[in-house]
Structure formats: C-alpha cells, structure tokens
Design brief:
heterodimer, A: mainly alpha, MetI-like fold, 2 domains, 14 helices, B: MetI-like fold, 16 helices, 67% helix, disordered N terminus, disordered C terminus
Chain lengths: 307, 337
Amino acid sequence: MVSVIPGRRPVRPRAARLVNGMTPPHPVMRGVKGIVLLLCCSVVVLPFIGVISTSLADQEQITRAGGYVLWPENPSFEAYAAIFRGGVVTQATLVSIFVTAAGSLLSVAVVALLAYSLSRPGSFGHRPVLMLVLVTMLFNAGMIPNYLLIKQIGLLDSLWALILPPVVSAFQVIIVRAFFMEVPQEIIDAARIDGASEFQVLTRIMLPLSKAVLAVVALFQAVAYWSAFFNAMLYINSTEKWPLQLVLRTYVVDNTAIGTDLPGEVVPPQQSLQMAILVVSLIPICLVYPFLQKHFAKGVVIGAVKG
Amino acid sequence: MASTQVGEHAAPDRVPAATRPPDDDAPLREAARRPSRLRRFRRDRFLFLLGLPGVVLVLLFHYVPLAGNIIAFKDYRPYLTIWEAPWVGLNNFAVIFQGDPAFLNALKNTLVISVLQIIVVFPVPIALALLLNSLLSERIKRVAQSILYLPHFMSWVVIVALFQQLLGNAGLYNTWARVNDLPVLRIIGDPDLFLTLITSQAIWKDAGWGTIIFLAAISRVDQQLYEAVAVDGGGRMRQLWHVTLPSIRSVIVLLLILKLGDVLTVGFEQIILQQGAVGQDASEVLDTYVYNRGIIDGNFGLAAAVGLVKGLIGLVLVLAANKIAHLFGERGIYSKW
C-alpha cells in the first residue's frame, strides 16, 4: 500500500543488501578475509610467475639474483630455442605428445564402446561385465605383479606400456554409461523402426548426443597421460623413449646438468633451461585448464553423488 | 511378431508398447520379453563385440596381475618365468611377521604420514571453502577458485620441482633471504623436516581442489535457515556454527571415513621423487619399500609379498570404510580423485 503512493518507495532500513539475512560484515573483517585470500592465491601464483620469468631471464640477471628471478629484465626465448634445437627435451616432448594423443584417443574409443555395450538394458552379459569393470575400483594388483606382466608380454621399454594399461578406467565407463542411459529410449526406438542397426544407433545417435561427455573423458585421460611419471620410470629404460615428466625429473628435480649437443653455441643459463622445460610441461595443462576446471569440478560432485 | 518387422537386432523389449500388435496372450509376451540366453546372445552379439576390447584390457591389466601375485609365494629368478620359479611357501612374508626393521620403519612412516594427512591436510579445504563461501563478490570468488584449483592438475614432478626452485638451498626464497640477512629455510633435503615438506606440498596441491565438494554441500543449504538465525539475533559466527557446519557435517564425516580406508597409501610419486635427498630412514613408506626391494634390489618375491599384504589390508579397510559410511546413512564413494 505504501508503494502505490507515487514518489515514495517502501521504506526499508539502510541495509539494502542483505547477505544471509544479515547486513554485510564489518569492513575490518572483510579486509582480513581479503588479505587471507590474497595470500592463498599468491602462494599459488608466485611460483609459476617465478618459473616463467626465470625461463626468460638472461645469464647476467640470474647471476645477479643468485639463481631465480621474479621478473625478467631482458626477456629472451633463448632457453626455449635451445631445448627445442633437437636433443633430449625435443624428443621427450614428442614422446609425451604421442603417448597423450594415442592414449586419450584410444581411451575414448574403448570406453565409449564398452559403456555403450553396457548401457542397453537387458542385453546379454552386461551385468557380469559391469561387475567385472566396477570391482577394479576396489583393488590394485600391486606394483610388482604389474611390472612382471608388462615384462612377460614384452612391453618393457615400449611406449605401449605407458599407453595401454590406463586405457579403461571404471570411473569413466560409469560416467559415459550413465550418460548413454539417459538418452531417451524413444529416440533409439525411432531409429530402430527406421531400420537402424546397432552400429548405426551408436554412430548416428549415441555418439553425436554425447560429444560433450566424451570430450570430458578425453580431457581426463589426456591430463593423466601427460602427467604420468612413475610408470615411465618403471617401464622405460632408453633415454630416447623418455616422456617429458621423466626428463623433468632428471634435469630439474635431480638437477643433472643439461648438456647441449652443439659446441660453440652460447648456452643459455642452466636455470633458464630447467625452467623452460618446466614451462613446456605446464603449457598443455594451462591450455585446457578452463575446460578442466569446469568439467572436472562437475565430475567430482557426480562422483560423490553417484558413488 | 514385432521383432520380425523391425529386424533381428531389435529386441521385443526395446519396441515401445504402442508399436506392438495387441496381444492378449500374456505368458507368451512374457516369454518374448525375456528370450533364452542363447537367443539373447545371438541378438546382442554385436553389442557384446563392441565391449570386447575394453573387457580384454580390463582383464589383462587388472585381473591378470592379480593372479601374478602368486610370485609372493615363490622365489623369483630373473631367468625363470613366473611359472617355473620354485615355491617357497610363506618365506617371503617373513619380513612382515618377524618385523624386519626396514619394513617396520616403512610401516611407521606410512602411518605417521597418513595421520598427518588426516589431522593437518584434511581440515584445510573445509576452512578454505568456508572462506570462499563467505565472499560477497561472486566474481572474486570465481577468480580465486580458478587460481586455487590450478595446482591440482600439476604432476608431482612439477610440484616437487617448483618447491625446490622456490624453497631449496639455492632457491628463490633463500637467495633473497641471504641478501637481506633473513633466516634461511632448510626445508628441502632435511630429513627432520621431511614430514613438514610433504604435508605442505599436499596442502599446496590439493587444498583448493578439495573445496569443491564442500562448496557443493554448502550451496545446498537452505537459505531460510540463515535468515532464521538472523531473525533470532544470531551473528555470522552463529550462522556458521549452527547452520553451515551442521549442513556439511555428513560430507565431512564421509570423506574422513573414506580417508581412513586409505591409510596405507600415501603419496608414492611425491615421496619417491624426494627420497634421494633425505634418505630412506625418513622417507621410506610401504609403497617405496615395495619399489626399492623389488624393482631396485630385484627381490620380487619379498616385494610382492609386502605389496599383497598391503593390498589386502587396504581392500578390507576400503570396504569397511564404505560399510561405515553406509551406516552413517551416506552413499559410499569407491573412487578417489
């Protein structure tokens, strides 16, 4: 009734903006929170800035700073040029790209097919197979038997030892299967009445409808393949088959000196080389990070709800 | 019948009722809905074939190694196959039952690290989630989340490298501290500080990411409850204490229980990467023990025995944790992230 009087708004005490039914917190409190948050974020961000800066810095500045710099004064890409002039790092980058690409593509294909074959209600054998897949979430056979298996089937020192074992993960089968099962039965029935075969239902209906979830699975797997380190340490001996993570461990964590095969060249500072390798290993993750953040977060919550 | 009209692969139970001819013969329809095993196999063989590559890979890389655990009862020799190696009964398990000092040390370290993870690492995401939730600006919150989630996607190699570059003896901080006459940090490479180091690394990597599940739980809280507290004259702390925390209590309990199921597994990659710098006394855990005895020393039987016992206890713990979670009225989570 107040509001019908023109020029007069309903009178409300100053708290125009209520948060949880209360006035916003005291400015001091907000300031404290802001500082804590800023601190947390800088602790995360600063190391990355330091790494990128050092990879771009020149010898003079690095010597002056005693090792690492927070901001490059004369940025140069010498270090990147040096590690990509051929040699161990170039080779390792190619290996990592190959393993990641082959692994995630294979993984999406196999997981999609398996999930589809498990998603049709009442189909032959889907229950025992589903159990077979689910139970793998509960146990891990152990490092030694896994190693012996890889050795027995002759995959030791082969890149396939890095690609094949993680191809099927039960969790992803569950996610994709759940997605397939939500596709309305009517669509599939309609396709069948139009004479679609099982394969056509898969390729013409299921896969196009589930592009998004398959992309997420591919991303999941790509990140896992790219970051995998221990399996390479276990199964790969030859230096030319080392993935990037292993090179990173040798040259950055264990601090082995990086030799360049090219005599007479001006060698960029050791720290810059190390940090350049580190940055190279970070770039793919950062490129896909926006998607990761969105979808992985969803995955965590789905995982919690669906079990 | 309907099935002949739409082809062999179209099962009767997948044809919507409306397209089926009217049929009063209920038992016959029942029989058509659940064909015999053989008929179902003939009908679904293509579907079955599609799943086959995945099934083969699961069998090969998950179940075959399970059988490979028989090496724990054998004397493994590099020049013999697993089958030819002589049986030695429970000899390989002697380190466990007789309490080999190195094994006991690994067990002790594992448990200490696990307890630290639960007491120190576990509450951090909860606190961080409460902080993020209390932010008024949706935009700042989103930016902060983007930054804080990032380390989760870094491999352990990257994180260990970052810590070394930053906190190592010649790292960014110590160089700066020496120039400015500040105390020097010796956290990298000092066995006494190893626990502190790996605990802070664990927090740095996953504290932000861990908030997701708590934020999701907080977002489901009924806003009216907050207003009710406000109406009753309660302040922000009361809202936190009487509404937010009780609402996420079940998630906290669930995650805690599941964490307990994992006590024998601690960051293997993280530790193996840093073992060289601090030595095995401080850093050996069960997984690294298996690696060092088996792969490095070549004592596969012994290593497999320790791995097997660890795996079995781990399985029992996970199942028990899920059981307890169910008792608390929660759905279990069998997967970890």
